[in-house]
Amino acid sequence: MKCVPPTRSVVKINFDAAIDNHQSRSGSRIVARNAMREVLVSRSILHDDIGFVFAAKALVFSWAVQTGVEMGLLEDIIEGDSLSIIKKVSVKYML
Hints:
Elements: E1 11-20, E2 25-33, E3 39-48, H1 53-70, E4 76-80, H2 83-93
Parallel strand pairs: 1-4
Antiparallel strand pairs: 1-2, 2-3
């Protein structure tokens, strides 16, 4: 997928997660930017006992969606590198 810049009224929320399989830990990040690329929200979280990449990315994706809800956004772009997560949610909720 190609990165899409947000239009004037749209906020873009990027998410990602990384995993340390040996220690069953992961880290997640969410960054929300406006069309001028100004950072509106930035969150980084370290997790213990999440040793699966799919679980870590699903969790941070749900936080990205929740961040948009908390910001009161009517239109946003949620972007991450986990195509399997995005496809599963898109099909379930017909996004």
